[in-house]
């Protein structure tokens, strides 16, 4: 079926709701060529029934006329990115600095980032993190500003957060301020070599205090020692892990630590936009040399991670300025360049990500009882993972935010 035909049918179906069967039952039905359920199963000719924002059923075949006839498209659960920086953007001068910006201008950039993220099929993201996330999260939750379900760590714990008691107090303050998780900077930036910064005791104190407060912990760690310390401290997830050896990969597997490598978007984005970053903070020529050398190193590390049976891989991008709305590139890179099977890469970005966020019973799969976060892509991502670039339908919590596909062209971001 042509894209134009789909759009016309969907529009007609919308207008039909008040008098159709859907209105009597309050149900919305979505028919796709196939549905990938986010847990490794594929259902041909799937029809999903949604009521009151939740998935009621998902079945093979269809009875009657669906509200949204997407039978040329593949249905998936809304994608999840466990690591973005939703507030980051290029400013007035086109550079990655917010100098001279008012708080209102900064917030509008965040709103734009939230919008492009949702339109690209990501219905939940974890921002790691910024104080402005709290107000953005509240605005999106009010249901008018379109954006993904947003989780945030607000402000991170670092080696400069003070004594062990001061760190524990800081974690409790993050909880009181509304944090969904705690971010730890346990190592330097990869542009500065990635060596461990927080002591083992500081890492332990932060992760213990977070656990006591009911918060998860995400640990920025590049060097082997920082990955080991985070894992042994019982922290929830290690992010980056660029210098992980087989020993650290196995240690994370043994401890059930979620591992979020970032191999396909963040470094590439820095290099593509080098002129916009160069000269700001640690974005100097030496740092860029680290970034360039890091790309093949991270790719090889990821291949070794794939070979560790039972290692709990998740999908996060570390998306910053220039990368918002392009989170799917990480999944595509994992499949096309690093050799992860497409089905596994999609499961990581959906149900595994949801579990790592403590939301496995709410989002991340097409299954009865879960939130109706449903997207449709043009193509079969199991055969061509780049179909994830062609998101033409986005529903979050039962509300349709996107149902457009200009005829004969790729959808606009
Ligand atoms: Zn980050």
Count of strand segments: 15
Largest sheet, described in full?
8 strands, mixed
The mean pLDDT is 92
| Element pattern in H and E | HHEEEEEEHEHEHEHEHEHEHHHHHEEE
- If helices are DSSP runs of H or I spanning 4 or more residues, what is the number of helices? 13
**First-to-last CA distance:** 22 Å
Query: Per DSSP, what share of the residues sits in E-state strands of 2 or more residues?
Result: 15-25%
Describe the global form. globular
Calculate Rg over CA atoms.
21 Å
Which stretches of 5+ consecutive residues score pLDDT under 50?
1-24, 405-413
Bound molecules: zinc ion
Backbone structural class: alpha/beta
Amount of helix: 25-40%
**Quaternary structure type:** single chain
Could you outline the blueprint of secondary structure elements for this entry?
Blueprint: H1 3-16, H2 21-25, E1 27-36, E2 42-44, E3 46-51, E4 54-60, E5 68-77, E6 79-84, H3 103-119, E7 122-127, H4 133-141, E8 149-152, H5 164-177, E9 181-185, H6 200-212, E10 216-221, H7 224-232, E11 237-240, H8 246-255, E12 258-260, H9 266-272, H10 274-277, H11 285-306, H12 328-336, H13 342-356, E13 374-377, E14 391-396, E15 399-403
Parallel strand pairs: 1-5, 6-7, 7-8, 9-10, 10-11, 11-12
Antiparallel strand pairs: 1-2, 1-3, 3-4, 5-13, 13-14, 14-15
Helix pairs in contact: 5-6, 6-7, 7-8, 9-11, 12-13
């Amino acid at each position: 079926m042509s894209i134009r035909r789909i759009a016309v049918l969907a529009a007609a179906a919308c207008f039909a709701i008040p008098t159709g069967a859907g209105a009597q039952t309050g149900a919305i039905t979505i028919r796709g060529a196939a549905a990938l359920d986010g847990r490794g199963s594929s259902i041909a000719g799937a029809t999903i029934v949604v009521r009151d924002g939740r998935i009621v059923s998902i079945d093979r075949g269809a009875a009657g006329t669906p509200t949204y006839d997407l039978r040329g498209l593949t249905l998936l659960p809304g994608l999840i990115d466990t690591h973005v920086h939703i507030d980051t953007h290029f400013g007035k001068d086109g550079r990655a600095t917010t100098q001279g910006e008012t708080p209102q201008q900064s917030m509008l950039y965040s709103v734009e980032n939230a919008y492009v993220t949702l339109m690209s099929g990501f219905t939940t993201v974890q921002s790691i993190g910024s104080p402005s996330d709290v107000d953005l999260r509240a605005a999106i939750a009010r249901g008018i500003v379109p954006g993904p379900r947003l989780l945030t760590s607000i402000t991170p714990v670092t080696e400069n957060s003070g004594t062990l008691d001061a760190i524990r107090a800081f974690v409790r303050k993050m909880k009181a301020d509304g944090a969904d998780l705690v971010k730890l900077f346990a190592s330097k930036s990869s542009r500065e070599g990635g060596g461990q910064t927080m002591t083992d005791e500081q890492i332990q104190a932060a992760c213990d205090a977070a656990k006591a407060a009911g918060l998860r912990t995400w640990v920025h760690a590049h060097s082997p020692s920082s990955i080991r310390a985070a894992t042994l401290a019982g922290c929830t997830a290690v992010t980056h892990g660029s210098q992980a050896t087989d020993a650290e990969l196995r240690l994370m597997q043994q401890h059930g630590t979620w591992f979020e490598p970032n191999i396909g978007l963040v470094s590439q984005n820095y290099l593509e936009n080098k002129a916009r970053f160069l000269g700001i903070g640690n974005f100097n020529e030496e740092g860029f040399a680290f970034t360039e050398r890091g790309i093949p190193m991270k790719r090889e590390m990821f291949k070794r991670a794939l070979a560790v049976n039972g290692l709990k891989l998740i999908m996060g991008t570390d998306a910053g300025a220039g990368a918002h709305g392009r989170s799917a590139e990480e999944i595509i890179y994992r499949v096309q360049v690093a050799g992860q099977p497409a089905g596994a890469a999609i499961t990581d970005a959906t149900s595994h990500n949801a579990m790592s966020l403590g939301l496995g019973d709410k989002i991340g799969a097409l299954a009865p009882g879960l939130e109706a976060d449903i997207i449709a892509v043009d193509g079969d991502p199991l055969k061509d993972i780049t179909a994830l670039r062609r998101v033409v339908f986005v529903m979050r919590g039962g509300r349709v935010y996107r149902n457009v596909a200009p005829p004969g062209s790729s959808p606009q971001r």
